[in-house]
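Treating backbone geometry as a discrete language has practical consequences that deserve illustration. In the encoding step, the backbone of a single protein was reduced to a row of integers, each denoting a local shape. The amino acid sequence and the backbone structure tokens for this protein are reproduced below.
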Amino acid sequence: MTPRDLSTSRRAVVGVRRVAQTRLPTGHGVFDLVSFEDELGTAHLALSMGLDVTPGTGTTRKNGGRSTAGPNTDPVLVRVHSECLTGDALGSYRCDCGEQLEAALATIARVGRGLLIYVRGHEGRGIGLVEKLRAYALQDLGRDTLDANLELGHPGDARTYEQSAQILRDLGITSVRLLTNNPAKETALRLLGVDVLERVSVPIADRPENARYLATKRERMSHDQPVDVWANLVRGEVPMLPGNELVELYGPLVTAGPRLVIAQLGQSLDGFIASRTGDAEFVTGPEDRLRLHRMRALVDAVVVGANTVLADDCRLTVRDCEGPNPVRVVIDPQGRVPLDAHVFADGAAPTLWFVGPEVEVAEGPGRGVEVVRLPHAGPVDPAEVLAVLGARGLGRVLVEGGGRLVSAFVFAGLIERLYLTTAPVLIGDGVPGLRFEGSDALRDALRGPARHFRMGDDICTELMLNAAAQ
């Protein structure tokens, strides 16, 4: 049988039958797993969560018939995933199939209700594993993924989806929200009688190894253009892409709403944010600094103490990524920060200069700088600072430093998420990071759920302190 004959015979497959049902624990949660077999003896899998997959849920009919009632009639998030041994099992970067599979399972698990149909016999867009590897060899010589298939005598895409439509009917699923970047897959399912309410893209970041492959699919096969995940986050939109580093780290901040108070510090392994001379350039590496700039772009205001400005002459702007600059807030009860500091002189962003009630400002501050009088002398009350900012519509606040200011906000119980990045360096003596009145017993120590992110050689720990306070 020639490859074209094999493709034609696959198109004739319209019937499937259930073979087995079990539970499948995965890194994304526990799925119900139902196996099906088509008329050629090819096995296909249906992994579901939050659905009723007991036998008799739906009906299996040929020639486009479909069930009209059942427990799964509400729209279901569905991924029809084509088998790809090299990507799914071996982790190949020549395609994005493995990452699409993981993202789809993670998305279904996050939603808590959905289905992934794993279609076997779709290797290499339906030409088979060996032929796909031959196509890879032609790609190594310069052909793109479409021309390689055509040169071997295959269609550009030999896949058919009758088995998927039948599996949906067996499960009583009458309407779907289809997880795919491929509009042709939506069209094929519609022609088979599947009610596709919408198509939900699954954006995966390009890799150097698959950039040309993905470009060919977008330019010649009408696949969705890549989604700029960061641009979506800056606009306040979180793409459905669990597992994506940007979504995982910043998504919770975007969805937190108009009131959010977070804090961050970068420190050495032995707990210092600067040397004993005040030198803090740089404790953490460039990856962590990019994280910090991105966090600035997602808040309304960034707050620092006078010592931080005096030591670093920081700008507190967004320079390493796209996004708006936050309002800069300098807590300076004694009025020690000079007017030629960047935050006062560069005019890059509106700046609030919090000074004590008796402090004399000898000269008018620079463009965009407003003096805010603290209600009393002495230590600053973090709650009063947040109240002033909130009254100005600045509800999303990042407390960036230094150690004493962050510690004051943490001790006051006002920080919801603390980002503490630890760099693999020992300073020995210097400016300490977090320091506040602790507890005598470790059982009373401040704890909370934590997540960890690698930032180059550094480790960023996100501590959910709002959960700890509950």
Notes: The CA atoms of residues 21 and 58 lie 15 Å apart. Residues 258-469 form a domain with the Dihydrofolate Reductase, subunit A fold (CATH 3.40.430.10). Residues 1-12, 60-69 have pLDDT under 50 and may be disordered.
